[in-house]
Amino acid sequence: DLSVSLDNVGKVSQQQGRWGDAQVAYEESLELSRRLVGVLGESPESLRDLTVSLHKLGQFNENHGTIKLAKEYYKEGLVLARRLAALLPDLPLYHSLPEYFITGLKNCDQ
After folding, report:
1. pTM score of the predicted model
2. Secondary structure (H, E, C), 4-65
3. 23-51 pLDDT tens trace
């Protein structure tokens, strides 16, 4: 829940033009998501939360011209998204998850 709340703080901060605060919130969310995967293991829920954090930071960096960093987040997220899609192919949410990262990577290459 805290990770999701941090993502929401990042989103609101970004909407208010407080870019530094948004970046800090997204980075804290990512760190927390990584720690949760380490403690709880690679459950679908913990991996999903991690992919959300990676995608948010990918988008943030893409929007701020930090393309190399955005690509790193998108690539890492794509690996996890594909793993989730393979683990849970019957769930549309997980099956379509890789496309978000593929789209981000394509945007970075334009």
Report:
1. 0.89
2. HHHHHHHHHHHHCCCHHHHHHHHHHHHHHHHHHHHHHCCCHHHHHHHHHHHHHHHHHHHHCC
3. 999 999 999 999 999 998 888 888 988 99
